[in-house]
Amino acid sequence: MDMETTAWRSLHSAMNERTERRPFDRAVLRRIGAFARPHRRRIGLYLLISVAAALLAVATPVLAGRVVDAIVGGSDPGHVTALAVLIAVIAVAEAGLGLVGRWLSANLGEGLILDLRTAVFDHVQRMPVAFFTRTRTGALVSRLNNDVIGAQRAFSNTLSGVVSNIVTLVLTLTVMLGISWQITLLALLLLPVFVLPARRMGRRMARLQHEAADLNAAMGTRMTERFSAPGATLVKLFGRPAEESAEFADRARRVRDIGVRTAMAQSAFITALTLVSALALALVYGLGGYYALRGSLEPGAVVALALLLTRLYAPLTALAGARVDVMSALVSFERVFEVLDLEPLVAYGPDARAVPEGPVSVEFDGVSFGYPSADKVSLASLEEVAVLDGRGGTEVLHEISFRAEPGRMVALVGSSGAGKSTIAQLLPRLYDADAGSVRIGGVDVRDLTAESIRDTLGMVTQDGHLFHDTVRANLLLARPGATEEELWEVLRRSRLDGLVAALPEGLDTVVGERGYRLSGGERQRLTIARLLLARQRVVILDEATAHLDSTSEAAVQEALAEALEGRTAVVIAHRLSTVRAADLILVVEDGRIVERGTHAELLARDGRYAELHRTQFENPAAAGHA
């Protein structure tokens, strides 16, 4: 390794010095060991190869010195040739070990990334909806990318680096001291001149990089918000393009200025340290040459010392920053484990069973519920706040009881914020009730398997969410094994077959982020088609037509009639015209059921339902705000 590369590594370690004073956490080390255990054989082989490579690295300078001595001493040409051949063999072996070591390093690193990412991804999927409503998506994705990769470096770089550097340092110092302890000690005196500037410059560059990272993060957040379909629409409607551009350009210019200052600081530092290394070599050649001319040192020894010197500073500076590298990796592991340590609020026991066969009922029995506080479902670092919001836990549903008979429809109506959607979210176990019981087919949902709940219960929400994928892929999410004929059948039943057939690539047309290439009514009908494909026995409709115009609503209502036929249904609606035919209508206010009955019964009672009905049908302008 040349001096310039050594200088870069020294600078890199110094830039991460802020983590150096963190204590070692034995619990974290044990958990790292658990992830490393499946790879222990390859780790052992990797360490052996690193040690062997370190031995070969020291052997080459010694042999080079012997070649010089053989030439100066007029040795037999065959002896010189043999030494040259041996150096060549060592070089080939060193190259081969380097390739094998790199292969093992890549396998270890990528294998660890796979294990960590899979563990985090699977764990996050089990988190409650409250986790996702609080967490910034970018911060969570960063855990799966940046922090996992940072943890991976502990195995692919730091682990082998520490072992090989210790071996190289011990062997190099031993050989150099054996050749000339005086020159070796003088060369070591220059080490502080090499390391100390790196510490000072590293802290300065770390501040520059931190500032650049903050600015880049701010630009990234701004671009993500402005480049999404809703954000771009908002900017076009209310934004000031000139001001938006000026603000973005100002941050970009500051990043550019920091980049220039960083580049110049790096160049000045590397130039200075390369000069120091050249002075160290000059010392070896000068003093070594003096001793050689006096006859107290062989010429080959001077060459060997000079070559060994280039291999001495690298492990010394690397080991000086080894703790920094190790602690940086531990911080990355801690940030990954921080996510894994968040306990999912919804757990499925080993004795969970399937929903009974045949038509199923839905029942709420004395259910009370309060949304969990932030400390139970989130992390301050994922929300990118200093302290988590302490609010939460206040009861929002109070002793909710009702039963939807198999094949019948129960409608939930009431003011916005009354708790209707919260009731709907307890059925598929997006949350668990704090008290009481939610049952599907007579079985408490907490005793059912996740798979059987998903197979039994389908839900259509008001936003009609779709992935940035093809029509086919969005439909197959419901039933991956569905045939082409089945896809077209559900599209026909949801009144979408003509539209999809007219698309440029039919079923393979990409619908865009959140389905924004389709109209609101088309998105809703596609989610209904997905529901029809799943063939679930219980259907929840949460304001499925809330934001549609009359024409789109009529088309969606026709599709919904297909979706509800023969199924147990829980329907949430603001527009009372959509639930007149419900077998049971529940009026929810402030988390309580204040009225229940059929449409006719509730009108005759002249209570809250009748008030909502009059508001909508005697004052249509206020209907959307009921």
What is the compact description of this entry?
By secondary structure, this protein is an alpha/beta fold. It has helices at residues 3-15, 26-36, 40-72, 77-125, 129-134, 137-179, 181-189, 191-227, 229-238, 241-293, 299-310, 313-320, 322-340, 374-377, 380-383, 420-426, 450-456, 471-476, 484-493, 497-502, 520-534, 550-564, 599-605, 608-618, and strands at residues 362-370, 395-404, 409-413, 435-440, 443-444, 457-460, 538-542, 568-572, 584-589, 592-597. Helix content is 63%, strand content 9%.
Fill in the keyword field for this structure:
single chain; 626 residues; alpha/beta; ABC transporter transmembrane region fold; Rossmann fold; 2 domains; 6-stranded mixed beta sheet; 4-stranded antiparallel beta sheet; 10 strands; 63% helix; disordered C terminus
Describe it.
With 626 residues, the protein is an alpha/beta fold. It folds into two domains: 3-340, Up-down Bundle (ABC transporter transmembrane region fold); 362-377 and 384-625, 3-Layer(aba) Sandwich (Rossmann fold). 63% of the residues lie in helices and 9% in strands. It has 24 helices and ten strands. It has helices at 3-15, 26-36, 40-72, 77-125, 129-134, 137-179, 181-189, 191-227, 229-238, 241-293, 299-310, 313-320, 322-340, 374-377, 380-383, 420-426, 450-456, 471-476, 484-493, 497-502, 520-534, 550-564, 599-605, 608-618, and strands spanning 362-370, 395-404, 409-413, 435-440, 443-444, 457-460, 538-542, 568-572, 584-589, 592-597. Strands 6-7-8-3-9-10 form a six-stranded mixed sheet, sandwiched between helices. A four-stranded antiparallel sheet has the order 2-1-4-5, with helices on one face. Strand 4 and strand 5 (443-444) form a beta hairpin. The longest helix has 53 residues, at 241-293. The chain is elongated, with a radius of gyration of 35 Å. Residues 17-21 and 620-626 have low confidence and may be disordered.
